Amino acid sequence: MQKKPEQWASKIGFILSSAGAAIGLGAIWKFPYMTGENGGGAFFLLFIAFTIIIGLPILIAEFIIGRGAQKEAISAYQTLAPKRSLWRFIGHWGVAGAFLLMSFYSVVGGWVLTYSLLSIPGMIIGNGTNYADLFATITGSPFLTILGHFLFIMINVVVVSFGVKDGIEKTSKILMPLLFIFFIILVIRSITFDGAMEGLRFFLQPDFSKLNTENILYALGQSFFSLAVGVSVMVTYSSYLKKDVSLPMSAASVSIMNIFVSLLAGLAIFPVVFAFGLEPTEGPGLLFIVLPEAFAQMPFGELFLSLFLLLFLFAVLTSSFSMLEIVTAAVTAKKQRSRRTTALVAGLLVFFTGIPAALSSSSLSNVTIFGKTFFDASDFLVSNIMLPGGCLFIALFVGFKMDKQLIQQEFRYGNQLGDPIYNAWFQLIRWLAPLTIIIVFLGSLGFL
């Protein structure tokens, strides 16, 4: 008897799950420190522009590929591409990218898990606590980083084992709205600190003199990272979608929520950074240093910090679910193996692959690849090479190789969008997206 294929129970469940895949470490953890390191407001403006002009069209393209083929990432390209075509490798590129992304993503997820557990008994906020030193202590402990990394992956294994509707969708529908509410509370408190206006100016007032080709590449990579495009995660998610759902409107909803959460993250973080004399260029630890500082100034700060960290943990998990799901779905589709067994094996492989990244702030801190730690090298490879590369391949595939009638059908199902909207999107995906990615990438390598 053939197993019934996975499917989302509702349109809102799909949108919130897709938003959950996008909104996690990309928007909440990585966006603030990347903005702080790359020029503030100018970086934010570039990020918005790239998200709307490049990221959104590619997100629609991934949705079209997945629902058009009705198969997960690897099988989707094999179905839609001509036999013996090199285009069929895009799915493998995506699965490899998602696997590598999760290997260092889960390290940060382990940090969030550790902070969440420590916050429950009130062990983070305290008189005279140096939050930068606390972060260095946690990330510098091989035992804590490996344990957090392992536990975070095992949570993913359990949820993904239950499948799309009963695992990922139910979790996302509850937790994503709660995260928005708590973020708004944090923003209101942050902007009322003395000195907060300087942080708002840094974040919202563009200074284009601070930009260079490397910053522009990072802004492009951040737009892809935060939308979870380029590794065909959204191809797998949309393959579970019914035909009555509008793909362009769903993609627009995900993109708008992603920009909004990035905005909230910046409004929550940078006023506190400047109010307390911290450095916006603090790097990956920025969020973990700033959040306790902000909550420590609030009534019932320990309670609010604990609740926020738990919601942040769930947001991080909804993103990582999608990464483990793409690997699990690819294997179960080909080998007809148990979803639970596949999720466990894939999770363990991710765990072992991520160990060097987990030890990058402790026992392997002096080991570098091209001057970068294992963690930073993995991040750079995924964010600035694999994601832009995957987006380039997807744009070219949809723009030049995929069946045009199928593309148009999938674009128009569930909506009344006319020819002008479709034609504008198709020109963006066929010409502007590939050219922009190529130009920015060549510029970062010094060829332009």
Distance between the termini: 58 Å
Number of domains: 1
Return the CATH topology. Answer: Hydantoin permease
CATH C-level class is Mainly Alpha
The name of the CATH architecture is Orthogonal Bundle
Could you list some keywords that capture this structure?
single chain; 448 residues; mainly alpha; Hydantoin permease; 18 helices; 75% helix; globular
Structure description:
The structure is a single chain. This protein is mainly α. The protein has one domain: Hydantoin permease (Orthogonal Bundle). The protein is 75% helix and 0% strand. The chain is built from 18 helices and no strands. The protein starts with 10 loop residues before the first helix and ends with a helix. It is found in: Membrane.
List the helices and strands and how they pair.
Layout: H1 11-22, H2 25-37, H3 41-69, H4 73-80, H5 90-119, H6 131-139, H7 142-161, H8 164-190, H9 196-204, H10 213-227, H11 233-238, H12 247-275, H13 286-295, H14 301-335, H15 339-358, H16 374-401, H17 404-412, H18 419-444
Helix pairs in contact: 1-8, 1-12, 1-14, 2-10, 2-12, 3-4, 3-9, 3-10, 3-12, 3-16, 3-17, 3-18, 4-5, 5-7, 5-14, 5-15, 5-16, 6-13, 7-14, 7-15, 8-12, 8-14, 9-12, 10-16, 10-18, 13-14, 14-15, 16-18
InterPro entries: Na/ntran_symport (IPR000175), SNS_sf (IPR037272), YocR/YhdH-like (IPR047218)
Membrane topology: Multi-pass membrane protein
Pfam families: SNF
Task: Describe, in short, the structure shown.
With 448 residues, the protein is an all-alpha fold.
